[in-house]
Each structure stands twice: as structure tokens, then as C-alpha cells.
Design a protein that fits this description.
single chain; alpha+beta; 3-stranded mixed beta sheet; 2 helices
């Protein structure tokens, strides 16, 4: 999807995604139709072509996890994982230094 000046809209998976929250009486059916399939998303008709928009349950933007459930569960789990990984990287050298004294 490029214009004559080379500008374009990149809707490839991982480049542009939508975190959708369905509300109301039809929400379960919409969730099943658009998010519980093998390739979550929907198609849109653009001026010259059809494109797929990918749906994601959560999105990490500038280090903050945004979830379609609008909770902090994903954010907290991500931060715990990052902290555990960082601690594991420095714990081994610290333990090794203490062992060799």
C-alpha cells in the first residue's frame, strides 16, 4: 500500500494491530468471530486493495502493556518476568564471587 511519493500504510502482522474490546449483548459472538479464529482479525477494503487488520489481546507500547481486558494483569506479569530475568543475570556472578572468597 504505497502512494506515488512512497508513503504507505504497513498493516503487516507486528507492524499494525488492533487491541479490540467488544461490549454489549453481541460481544461474545463478535469475540468468537474475530478473535478466536486461527488468524484473528478482519479485512478492510482500501481504495485500491483489500487489507487484513490483525487483532491482538494485548500490546506493548513504550514498555507498557495495554490489554483488551483493561486490567493490569499482563503489565504486572511482564514486569515480574523482566525483573526475574534481570535478577538471574546478576545473581550468578554475585554468587560466584561469594563462593570464591
Amino acid at each position: 500500500m504505497r502512494s506515488s511519493s512512497g508513503e504507505g500504510l504497513n498493516l503487516q502482522k507486528g507492524k499494525a494491530s488492533v487491541v479490540a474490546t467488544f461490549k454489549g449483548p453481541g460481544a461474545p459472538a463478535m469475540h468468537a468471530k474475530y478473535q478466536l479464529e486461527s488468524r484473528p482479525g478482519f479485512s478492510v477494503q482500501l481504495v485500491q486493495e483489500e487489507a487484513s487488520v490483525h487483532l491482538m489481546p494485548c500490546y506493548n507500547h513504550l514498555g507498557t502493556m495495554f490489554s483488551s481486558a483493561h486490567t493490569l494483569d499482563q503489565e504486572i506479569a511482564m514486569r515480574i518476568g523482566v525483573a526475574k530475568s534481570a535478577f538471574a543475570q546478576v545473581a550468578r556472578p554475585i554468587q560466584d564471587q561469594a563462593f570464591h572468597r
